Amino acid sequence: MKRNLVIFALSLSCLFSISGQLPAAGKYFRVEQRQGVWWLITPDGQPAISAGVNNISYRGDVIQGTTRHPYFENISKIYPSKEAWVQAELKRLSEWGFNTIGSWSDPALWGRTMPYTVILDIAARSGANWQQGIPVDVYSPRFQSTARKIADEECAPRAKDPELIGYFSDNELRWGPDWRGKQNMLAMYLGLPPNSPGRNHAIDFLKKRYSGRIGKLNQAWGIQARSFADVPAEAATEAFRADNSEFLGMVAQRYFGVCAQAIHAADPNHLYLGAKFADAPPDPVLRASHNIDVVSVDIYRFDPRPVVEHIYKLSQRPVLVAEFAFRAENSGLPNTRGAGPKVPDQAARARAYTNYVKWLESLPEAVGYHWFEWCDEPKEGRFDGENSNYGLVNIHDQPYAKFVNAVTEANRAATAIHRQAR
Predict the structure, then answer these.
(1) Is residue 108 included in any domain, yes or no?
(2) CB 210, CB 246: distance < 8 Å
(3) N or C, which end of the chain has less CB nearby within 10 Å?
(4) What's the pLDDT tens digit per position in 238-273?
(5) Can you give the pTM of this predicted structure?
(6) What is the CATH number of the domain that holds 379?
């Protein structure tokens, strides 16, 4: 893997340096609180924030139901090779004030002149399903063995890479009721296949909680189960909700504990950036996230502050916004599928980005933000049907000039804003 540490250190110092500290040799990215403000600390000892972009992909999105990649079809006529594309896009990212390669980006961009992050998909590769909201069975031996295997294969080889910031274990796991379903975690685990480790653990949890007395549980839940193995997955009482909160905290504790142990055993030098929450998860999940170095969360709102403040209050960990976006209604794209607020045009999109970064980095706990995403989605819809104006560039690799100009100014002002955070 190519290294260019001199350019790397200089680029970070030019964008983010706020002190005259000497470089600290042999270090990696870490987080640290200085004078009440959280920072991402670079390998040369400089306080920084992570300003990144997700899904910087040479192939781009595929049109749903086809094998066509319209972005790739267009850029293959612009750039003579993938390497030429890599060099051009890294140059533009730096010019636009970004300093991080975000999730799902092309590995060809890694190990160059810009720090990067890796998403591991530990739960997703252990049986969870993001689109359908099927949770991972954290008590299954498969989960722990998969976490170790992934860490050994993907984290261990990068353990001494100073350009790596850290790892996301997963993306937008389901922790309870959301757009994918109304069940809470206890209900989902009780609904797992018979004799599965997770279902057995949920039943054992209820036995212990109710002293082995099914009548006591029946009264609390307002049900008529014959045995703990016969308990339905749903109830409408406050006791059921309280039981879920307790159980959810245990599941989250297990999830983060297994992921943190696997990642740091294979790579003790880099950050565990959490599991990319979809907005704020239930409070028991946040309270269980003490094994995370940075809590990462996707916040598709105009103002991220209420969510970030709530997360920090319960987790006491610095917060990275791992996805945010605004979609312009005059972009020529349908914008009928996908998350995030819609705005009239690129000028409004520019204002929304500027305000978001300003408000976010005014918080002492906010250590950065990653825009979703590099290129627009196809108007016909990508693999899951999303068809929105998320891009810094369109599918012809042309930047939205008015928007990108504002993005550049906001990125370059972000560190000064964060420096004054209180």
Answers:
(1) yes
(2) no
(3) C
(4) 999 999 999 999 999 999 999 999 999 999 999 999
(5) 0.92
(6) 3.20.20.80
